[in-house]
Design a protein that fits this description.
The chain is α+β, with helices and mostly antiparallel strands. 38% of the residues lie in helices and 15% in strands. It has helices at 10-14, 57-67, 94-102, 110-120, 125-134, 140-147, 151-157, 174-185, and strands spanning 31-33, 35-36, 46-52, 73-79, 83-89, 170-171. It has a four-stranded antiparallel β-sheet with strand order 1-3-5-4, with no helix packed on it. Helix 4 (110-120) runs antiparallel to helix 5 (125-134) and helix 6 (140-147) crosses helix 7 (151-157). The radius of gyration is 20 Å and the shape is globular. 25% of the residues are buried. The model has no long low-confidence stretch (mean pLDDT 85).
Length: 193
C-alpha cells in the first residue's frame, strides 16, 4: 500500500462521502469545512461545502437535483466572487462526526465506512489508503517500519491517519460577516420630509 504522510483536508475524505453523492457530478466543492469562524462551531456538527462557480443554468440544475433534496441540507449562503456555501446538518451523524473530530476514523459506524469506501471505490491507490485509515490493523506493520517505531506503539495509538487540523477545517470569511453586520445595523441618512 505505501505510507501516506501529506496533510489533506480530512472533511473531504471522511465527511463528504456521507452526503451519498457519487463521483462524476458536474460540480464538486472547491473545499470542505466542519466549522465557520464566528458562525458555526465544531459543536454545531455542520458540514460545509464551498463551491466556486457562477450561478448559471447548469449550477442551478445541479443545486435543484443534488443539493436541495439531500436529507442533510440546511442552507445555501451566497458569498462574494461566485462562491456558494452549502451547509449540511450532521447532528443525526453525531457518533461519526464526533469520531471525525477526534481523528478516530476506525471507530466510524459500519454504515458510514461503507459509504466512504463506496465513494472511493477499490481501483486505485487512494482507495487503498482510505481502507487503511478506516481499518488500520493491516497497515500497522508497514507504518511502524516507515516511522521506525515499535509496532506495539502503533497498535496502542491504533489510528494511522492524523486527526483533522481544525484550523484548516475552519472557513474564515470575515467579508460575509461584515456585510451582514452592516446590513443589519445600517442607518438611513436620507432626509425625510
Amino acid at each position: 500500500m505505501g505510507v501516506y504522510t501529506e496533510y489533506f483536508q480530512k472533511s473531504k475524505v471522511f465527511l463528504y462521502p456521507l452526503l451519498e453523492y457519487r463521483k462524476g457530478l458536474t460540480h464538486v466543492p472547491k473545499q470542505t469545512y466542519c466549522s465557520w469562524e464566528d458562525v458555526y462551531s465544531i459543536e454545531d456538527r455542520m458540514f460545509l461545502c464551498l463551491y466556486k462557480t457562477p450561478m448559471n443554468a447548469s449550477f442551478e440544475k445541479f443545486i435543484a437535483k443534488n443539493i436541495m433534496p439531500n436529507k442533510y441540507f440546511e442552507d445555501h449562503i451566497v458569498l462574494e466572487n461566485n462562491r456558494h456555501l452549502f451547509v449540511f446538518n450532521f447532528n443525526s451523524l453525531k457518533f461519526d462526526y464526533d469520531n471525525f473530530v477526534a481523528g478516530k476514523y476506525s471507530k466510524y459506524s459500519v454504515d458510514s465506512k461503507v459509504k466512504i469506501l463506496d465513494f472511493f471505490g477499490t481501483d486505485d491507490k487512494v482507495s487503498e489508503y482510505i481502507q487503511g485509515f478506516l481499518s488500520p490493523d493491516s497497515s500497522h506493520e508497514e507504518y511502524a517500519e516507515y516511522l521506525d517505531v515499535d509496532i506495539e506503539s502503533l497498535i496502542d495509538v491504533y489510528e494511522i491517519c492524523t486527526p483533522p487540523d481544525l484550523v484548516k477545517e475552519t472557513l474564515i470569511d470575515n467579508n460575509y460577516l461584515l456585510v451582514r453586520l452592516l446590513k443589519d445595523t445600517s442607518i438611513s441618512l436620507s432626509k425625510t420630509k
